[in-house]
Specification:
2 domains, binds 4-amino-1,4-dioxobutan-2-aminium adenosine-5'-monophosphate, 22% strand, binds magnesium ion, five-stranded mixed beta barrel, alpha+beta, OB fold (Dihydrolipoamide Acetyltransferase, E2P)
Length: 474
């Protein structure tokens, strides 16, 4: 049985056996055993007088054991049930002198360096159970709402965002590659006969799929070689990208808000123990901070607040006016001053709007065309596009999306303006030639949503093996 089974089915007086890792061993008598199936460990009471000393000596934190015994109601405080141990087998020893994960509080930095072992701690096992629950809730939401799950390529010949921050994929010997007449590497000799990269977004291919399946979504790994060493950026992250045919920007914002709320609702219900633990962890962390830096709401209150309240929707121009007239802007507290319509919003501005001004998630839409991607639907004003970003407290941007430009001629103009080679996008333009329809979609960064759901503050702590600049260990 798993520990979770034991707590669910509580087969009192039955002989059961269970395998797991020792969390602690106290007084030569009490093993706290966990197998990852749930937050709470099971206490196993050892009859040490009748247990071989060789075995007793090897019941160390981190060791794997198989325990056979009888499940009984617990005599002690802190747990309802425990196992009266009849037999212990040491499956894998663990040298307590060498094992890095001691039964004490370690820093998150230290645990990142031991990412292969950090899953044995309470904090990380909770985070990764929540991550799993969120992923399930995402599929569940789309399945229940009639979306088809599609898989878009990871190796791609197109640069969806036009940002150029991509990882090259090649089989060429880069020290010995042939040079063409323009003194550039000759990619015609490469595996695919052309330059290819790891995808930055599945959107363009998802649009193609939506033009036959109606409503689709992708959910997969995405890669960006931007050199942003922040607590919000990964070089490899997971993105959820729904794409809906016959839908405009309003439909898109409605979907995104409903989707996020529904996923969080599922997690609040499915991960109670893990959330309670992370909540307590944050509350005690908060107490160590100066009053002004403390959170007004604890983690569980924050989650409930988002689920129960409408997101604030404002257009870029309204956001710009609020920011321009804001105290920090007037007192020159922003690193990037807000003075001219059209400037891109930085995370300091986004956080001001969300955390100080509205104190709730905010959707900003209708951004200036010149700070957004080529594929976004041009508005009648000729200056703004039907883009939308969702901003979250403590995180900043969690969703980026738009209604797509479905008019062939307008799209071609935009492509030309941005000096993108039209030939590269021939198939994307075909979608506008053959039965084009109004459509829209968005991308949600999975790890950013997990940051919010777990209250963690560094994105490296919510993906098992983070990939960031100068870091691809494990
Ligand atoms: O805003 P982005 O760049 O949008 C797109 O890629 C669109 N093609 C999506 C679409 O419309 N289908 O990225 C979407 C989201 C961001 O809001 C953010 O949550 C996340 O992806 N994201 C990252 N997460 C972690 N690390 C990074 N380097 C990220 N870059 C984007
Ligand atoms: Mg974005």
């Amino acid at each position: 049985m798993t520990v979770k089974d034991l707590f669910l089915k509580t087969p009192i007086s039955k002989t059961i056996s269970i395998k797991g890792w020792v969390k602690t061993f106290r007084a030569n008598r009490f093993i706290s055993l966990n197998d990852g199936s749930q937050f709470q460990s099971i206490q196993c009471v050892v009859d040490y007088e009748n247990t071989d000393s060789e075995i007793l000596n090897n019941i160390n934190t981190g060791a794997s054991v198989k325990i056979t015994g009888t499940l009984v109601e617990s005599q002690g405080k802190g747990q309802k049930i425990e196992i009266k141990v009849e037999k212990i087998e040491i499956l894998g020893k663990c040298d307590p002198e060498e094992y890095p994960i001691q039964p004490k509080k370690h820093s998150l930095e230290f645990l990142r360096e031991n990412a292969h072992l950090r899953i044995r701690t309470n904090t990380f096992s909770s985070i990764f159970r929540i991550r799993s629950s969120i992923s399930y809730a995402i599929h569940k939401y789309f399945k229940e709402n009639g979306f088809v799950y599609v898989n878009t390529p990871i190796i791609t010949g197109s640069d969806a965002e036009g940002a150029g921050e991509m990882f090259k994929v090649t089989t060429l010997d880069i020290n010995n590659a042939d040079i063409d007449s323009e003194k550039k590497i000759d990619f015609s000799k490469d595996f695919f006969g052309k330059e290819t990269n790891l995808t930055v977004s599945g959107q363009l291919e998802a649009e193609s799929m939506a033009m036959g399946l109606g409503n689709v979504y992708t959910f997969g790994p995405t890669f960006r070689a931007e050199n942003s060493n922040t607590s919000r950026h990964l070089a490899e992250f997971w993105m959820v990208e729904p794409e809906m045919a016959f839908s405009d920007l309003d439909d898109n914002m409605n979907l995104a808000e409903d989707f996020i709320k529904e996923v969080l609702r599922y997690v609040i219900d499915d991960c109670k123990e893990d959330l309670m633990f992370l909540n307590e962890r944050l509350v005690s962390e908060d107490k160590a901070k100066p009053l002004k830096d403390r959170n007004e709401l604890n983690l569980i209150e924050r989650l409930n607040f988002v689920v129960d309240n409408d997101f604030k929707r404002i257009n870029y121009t309204e956001a710009f006016d609020i920011l321009r007239n804001s105290k920090p802007n007037k007192k020159k507290k922003f690193k990037y001053p807000i003075n001219e319509w059209g400037v891109d919003l930085q995370s300091e501005h986004e956080r001001f709007l969300v955390e100080k001004h509205f104190k709730k998630p905010v959707i900003i839409y209708d951004y200036p065309a010149k700070i957004k991607a080529f594929y976004m639907r041009m508005n009648e004003d000729g200056k703004t596009v039907k883009a939308m970003d969702i901003l979250f407290p403590g995180i900043g941007e969690i969703v980026g999306g738009s209604q797509r430009e479905e008019r062939l001629e307008v799209l071609k103009e935009r492509i030309a303006e941005l000096n993108i080679d039209e030939k590269e996008l021939w198939w994307y333009l075909d979608l506008r030639k053959y039965g084009t329809v109004k459509h829209s979609g968005f991308g949600l960064g999975l790890e950013r949503l997990i940051l919010f759901a777990t209250g963690m503050s560094n994105i490296r702590d919510v993906i098992p093996f983070p990939r960031t600049p100068k870091n691809a260990e494990f």
